[in-house]
Amino acid sequence: MEVGGTVKQAVCKKNDLRPGGMMKATLGRMPIVVCRTLDGGFYAFSNQCIHQGAPMSEGVVCGASAPTDQPGEYRYVKEGEILRCPWHGREYDIKNEGRMLSDPNRRLPGFKVAIEGDDVVVSK
Amino acid sequence: MARRLIDTDIHERVLYEDLITYLENPWKRYITDCHWLQEKHMPYTQPAVAGVDRADARVPDGRPAGTDLAFMQQQLLDANQHSFGVLTGALDPSPSSMHGWYEMATALASAYNDWQIENWLEKDERLYGSVHIAAQDPQGAVREIERVGPHPKMVQILLPIDDNLWGDPYYHPIYEAAEHHDLMIGMHHNEPPTHFGRWPRYFIEWHTLIPTSHMIQVSNMVYNGVFEKYPQLKLMMIEGGFTYVPHLMRKMDQQYTDLRHEVPWVKRMPSRIVREHVRFTTQPMEEMSKHDFLQFVDQMGSEDIICFSTDYPHWDYDSPARALPALGEPLRQKIFFDNAKAFYPKLPEVHGGGGNRETSSV
């Protein structure tokens, strides 16, 4: 449905996605990826990596090693909140506007998500 | 008109179980009975989501990336409308890397070549191949070059970059045979050619410095006079990128200016030898603007020495559509097609666009 230049569309059902999962969908003709974090939240992003256009939905939802001041220290955080590209492995922070962990000035374009009944509704 | 594309680095991959058919005994039994496989030491398997492969390149039936022609055709060759692709193997096995048992290495090279020809080169007219040899035994290597080098779809001889320096006169019979059969030399790094033959603590260190191992081989080939001795021979440096080349050219020229006396068989400036004999594949591309890109080209003094490559199916794959900045013609066509076409004399002429239908059959 297009309203005043915006596109709003039910892209999947809530139960289509388990917490920690993702799936590809389309918004209009635009390929998107819908992610569900472990706390149940839904997020939607472009399904093309901003680097070379890889299909993000072929990557993985995972966590990441937290920045640390101690060389050699690994602390795995943000489980279910990081979307990694299937090619070069770039890490995008799902709950932080899709920002890249290595360069927060760059981010995967995101879309608004609302839950309406059983529907996951994405709009831009 | 569709754009033409030659991909100078595609990694097909053999499973040892598929290689057995092409081996004689006792070599076959060493694999079936004794479970021989080439020792590999890389301590990291984690660089990207699916190890060293693109996560979406695993064959749908579960086999590893690069093992299935039909899937490669769908995901790479058809999707990007390749004109030609040059197969470079997966370096497992890598006969020229074996520290000993050269008889087994020679048998593996022959088996690999037969497997490659039957299952890839003769199944898709776009694909061209690399002759695998056991270079530690140059006479055996020459016999293998004589055996499969005349195949119309073999375009180069593959040498791994590890701890051998291939410019040494000991290996020159290989280059004589290559020149005789219109085969070029392709070099691709294998297990740790950097950090004094050992692994650094982190993958990111190793991967950052792979170009240093390529620099070692280029300078070794130049200073050992390979290109003076074999004037028709050319060398493709595969998967080291090209941004190190301006530095290397300048450094070699300065050294040659002062130290020529030590290598009197080198009669041209090293940078000129590089421009006339050495080519460099683009991947892995650093992200850069057109302005940045053109500065590198300017410093190399030639638009003719870099050739596009994807590195499919590996994790740091470069997309033909997205990896390079918009360069405009004719430079774009040089990098994506003309330079590689000029490099490999056995590639056929292409009439029309990028697909395989216009290419001459083999």
Percent strand of chain B = 5-15%
List unreliable stretches of 5+ residues of chain A. none
The rounded distance between the terminal residues' Cα atoms of chain A is 11 Å
Strand order of the largest sheet of chain B: 1-2-3-4-5-6-7-8
Q: How many strand elements of chain A?
A: 11
How many helices of chain B? The count is 13
Mean pLDDT score of chain A: 95
Rg of chain A computed from alpha carbons, rounded to a whole number of angstroms? 15 Å
Structural class of chain A: mainly beta
Q: How many domains is the backbone of chain B divided into?
A: 1
Characterize the main sheet of chain A.
7 strands, antiparallel
GO molecular function, one term (chain A): monooxygenase activity
Organism (chain A): Paludifilum halophilum
InterPro entries (chain A): Rieske_2Fe-2S (IPR017941), Rieske_2Fe-2S_sf (IPR036922)
Protein name (chain A): Rieske (2Fe-2S) protein
Task: Describe this protein's structure.
- The complex is a heterodimer of chains A (124) and B (362).
- Helix content of chain A is 0%, strand content 48%.
- Chain A is mainly β and 124 residues long.
- Chain A has a single domain (2-123), classed as Rieske [2Fe-2S] iron-sulphur domain (Rieske Iron-sulfur Protein, 3-layer Sandwich).
- Chain A is globular.
- Chain B has 13 helices and eight strands.
- In chain B, strands 1-2-3-4-5-6-7-8 form an eight-stranded parallel sheet, with helices on both faces.
- The relative contact order of chain B is 0.15.
Note the topology:
The complex is a heterodimer of chains A (124) and B (362).
Chain A: E1 2-3, E2 6-13, E3 22-27, E4 30-36, E5 42-46, E6 60-65, E7 76-84, E8 91-93, E9 99-100, E10 110-116, E11 119-123
Antiparallel strand pairs in A: 1-2, 2-11, 3-4, 4-5, 5-10, 6-7, 7-8, 8-9, 10-11
Chain B: E1 6-10, H1 16-19, H2 27-32, H3 69-78, E2 84-87, H4 102-121, E3 127-132, H5 138-148, E4 154-161, H6 172-180, E5 184-189, H7 203-208, H8 210-223, H9 226-229, E6 235-238, H10 245-259, H11 270-277, E7 278-281, H12 290-300, E8 306-307, H13 331-343
Parallel strand pairs in B: 1-2, 2-3, 3-4, 4-5, 5-6, 6-7, 7-8
